[in-house]
Amino acid sequence: MNDLSSFRKSYEKSTLSDLLKNETPFTIFNEWFNDAINDDLIVEPNAMTLSTASQTNKPRNRVVLLKKFDEDGFVFFSNYNSSKGEDIAFNPNVCLSFFWPSQERQIIIQGSAKKIPSKESDDYFYSRPIESQLGAIVSNQSSVIPNREFLEEKFIKLKKSTKIKRPDFWGGYLVNPLRFEFWQGRKNRLHDRIEFIFENSLWKNNRLSP
Ligand SMILES: Cc1cc2nc3c(=O)[nH]c(=O)nc-3n(C[C@H](O)[C@H](O)[C@H](O)COP(=O)(O)O)c2cc1C
Predict the structure, then answer these.
(1) How many A from CA of 20 to the centre of ligand 1?
(2) Residue to probe by mutation, ligand 1, list 60, 78, 173, most atoms within 8 Å of CB
(3) DSSP state letter for 116
(4) Of the candidates 201, 194, 182, 206, the residue with the CA atom closest to the CA atom of residue 32
(5) pLDDT band at 207 (very low <50, low <70, confident <90, very high)
(6) What is the value of pTM for the model shown?
(7) How far apart are CA 32 and CA 197, in angstroms?
(8) Is the pLDDT of residue 162 over 80?
(9) Whose CA is nearest to atom 28 of ligand 1?
(10) Most C-beta atoms within 10 A of its C-beta, which of 15, 16, 46, 87?
(11) For 71-191, where are the E strands, in sequence order?
(12) CATH code, residues 18-129+169-208
């Protein structure tokens, strides 16, 4: 077995003060997201891991791009017929996570996903470059295809058509958060963790042991 036991990094960049507990999780997310945007070492700050569970309780993670967020939640776009789409239709409980190594920070967001209104999916779909629109239409995401050419031929054929319409199987999901966890790496593995849980219409928070 490959031995990585000497891989070790000390986290010393920042700290999470208890004062953070007076803020809302959305304010903290916003601050941390801005820090990530302004960090040249982070190439895609809006790339996040999305976890879903299948009907047979098998979890799967994959990266998707966060496209919008506010106090209602976090929006990403995908194919509704993909594996993740099937999972969410059966079980809307999902988990999002961001890891920004240069900031020594992780954010975990658990919540419930639902499709956004079709008008909002239209607005985003038609704002994308035409090639991306075509790509979304030709890809039966997560299905098995015979080879690369199959996809490219479909793309070229569709490119010749004059009318492009957002397919019903492609659109956005809004993840309504019910729990946030903010993690800041610290020295000696004594990391800072603060969680916010939405209970009885209020955000409660706790400091967690690392
Ligand atoms: C950086 C990055 C960004 C991605 N963004 C998206 C996205 O916004 N939406 C999406 O459906 N897939 C995105 N993908 C592809 C997914 O990770 C995944 O391969 C795809 O959605 C199929 O997942 P599924 O079969 O589990 O449903 C992205 C992948 C990477 C590495």
Answers:
(1) 32
(2) 78
(3) P
(4) 182
(5) very high
(6) 0.97
(7) 18
(8) no
(9) 64
(10) 87
(11) 73-79, 93-100, 105-115, 170-184
(12) 2.30.110.10
Q: Is 189 a catalytic residue?
A: yes
CA-based nearest residue to 192, from 98, 96, 99, 105: 105
Query: Closest ligand 1 atom to the C-alpha of 76?
Result: 8
Torsion, CA 118, CA 121, CA 123, CA 128, rounded to 10: -150
Alpha carbon 62 to its chain's center: 9
Q: Which residues line ligand 1 (CB under 6 A)?
A: 44, 47, 60, 62-65, 76-79, 82-84, 141-142
Task: Determine the distance from the C-alpha atom of residue 180 to the mean position of all C-alpha atoms in its chain, rounded to a whole number.
Answer: 13
For 173-201, write each residue's pLDDT tens digit. 999 999 999 999 999 999 999 999 999 99
Query: How many angstroms separate the alpha carbon of residue 201 from the centre of ligand 1?
Result: 32
Pairing relationship of beta strands 93-100 and 73-79 according to DSSP bridges: unpaired
List pLDDT tens digits, range 83-120. 999 999 999 999 999 999 999 999 999 999 999 999 99
For residue 98, count CB atoms less than 10 angstroms from its CB and return exposed for 0-12, middle for 13-18, buried for 19 or more. Answer: buried
Task: Output the CA angle 66-39-18, nearest 5 degrees.
Answer: 80
Residue 114 tokens read as 């639902």
**How far apart are the CA of 160 and the centre of ligand 1, in A?**
26
Per domain, the residue ranges of the chain are: 18-129+169-208
What is the rounded CA–CA span in Å between residue 69 and residue 109? 12
